[in-house]
Amino acid sequence: MTKTQTKQTYKKMSRPETRNTPTPPPPSLPPAGNKDRICYGISIGVLVSGVLLTGWMWYSIVGTLMRAATSTPVDWWSIGGMAVLGALSFFVARFFLWLSILAPLMLAAQTRSYGAQERFCKIALKLRQFLPGAATWASNGLVQLMLSRGQTQEAIALGASEYDFAVKKNPKDQSLAPMCAQLGLAHQMAGEHQLSILWNERAYEQYQNLLESMDKAESKKKKLMPDKQFVDQTRLQSAGICANLATSYFNVGNYGKAKTFYTRAVDQANKLPDSPEKQQIIQVGRDQVQRLKHW
Fold it and tell me: For the chain, which terminus, N or C, has the lower number of CB atoms within 10 Å?
């Protein structure tokens, strides 16, 4: 059998499977239970602590300023010190505001309190002017929640809007890789494979740039080298993106690209410590590469 005949035979065999390839189902979410109230309580507690601390600081500042201004001679050193303390109080207030959102949000993610997680993500988006950087992880969290509920189009609309907003501010922002990956998964779930490829390619490029910078830092033994757990997590996400890209390319009939990215997924996974996710990526990747051996 010639190579052309082999390819034609393979196409005939794979077309029914390509046509019937199911879109990946959204991850199942267990019920949140009654843990939302704990998250809200932590947020309120942090806010109250911040108000009390900043209130005490301003009470001390105002009292000291009045005494320094009415003393003879005027105590300029105290006035200068209170001015610095007053400026510092704004940073303290901002820190407590950030903590009142971040702390309960992390707890909500760990305890699967999805109602609280959604609410705090929306609050963080509304306060993006006061909390720089919060919009990125908050929008990621919201998109992930929407996908888990099957709200694919809503997730795509929100994710694309937040991506455009972030790119306008910083075109080289590498923290957008998870958002690109989420949008790639959303379009794949919607059966829009070309758009899924577009977003997953963007995510893959950003993850590769991030991994290259980590490898350079490791080779130079820089002190600011990220810890191994973060590097492994980034590499695992990159391997997952390669697997998603391979699936999308397979679904549109580009078997050569599909084989390439399945191979890259296996190569990335082989660099990871043993885990169920690693074994799954390697097993699926090797099976598909063997299946596509004629391409």
Answer: N
Tell whether the model's pLDDT for residue 43 goes beyond 60. Answer: yes
Q: Which amino acid would we find at residue 129?
A: Q
Dihedral sign (CA 17, 18, 19, 22):
positive
Domain containing 96 equals 31-128
Which of helix, strand or coil describes residue 26? coil
Count the Cβ atoms, other than its own, within 10 Å of residue 25. 8
Judge if 285 and 150 occupy the same domain. Answer: yes
pLDDT 10s digits, 14-35: 433 443 444 444 444 444 456 7
Residue 189's contacts (CB-CB under 8 Å, 6 or more residues apart) are 23, 24, 26, 147, 152
Torsion, CA 226, CA 229, CA 234, CA 236, rounded to 10: 160
- The pTM (predicted TM-score) of the whole model is 0.70
Residues 124 and 165 in one domain: no
> Does the CA dihedral 140-141-146-147 come out positive or negative?
positive
Which of these, 147, 218, 230, 229, lies nearest to 183 by C-alpha position? 147
Q: Are residues 252 and 156 in the same domain?
A: yes
Nearest alpha carbon to residue 198 among 139, 241, 146: 241
Token readout for 111 is 């305890």
Q: What is the DSSP annotation of 135-166?
A: HHHHHHHHHHHHHHTT-HHHHHHHHHHHHHHH
The reply to whether 204 falls in a domain is yes
CA separation for the pair 84, 211 (Å, rounded): 41
- Residue 208 tokens read as 């590769």
Q: Which of 98, 128, 158 is the last residue before a domain boundary?
A: 128
- pLDDT of 59 over the 60 cut: yes
Which residue, 221, 229, 213, 228, is CA-closest to 175?
213
The residue type found at 284 is V
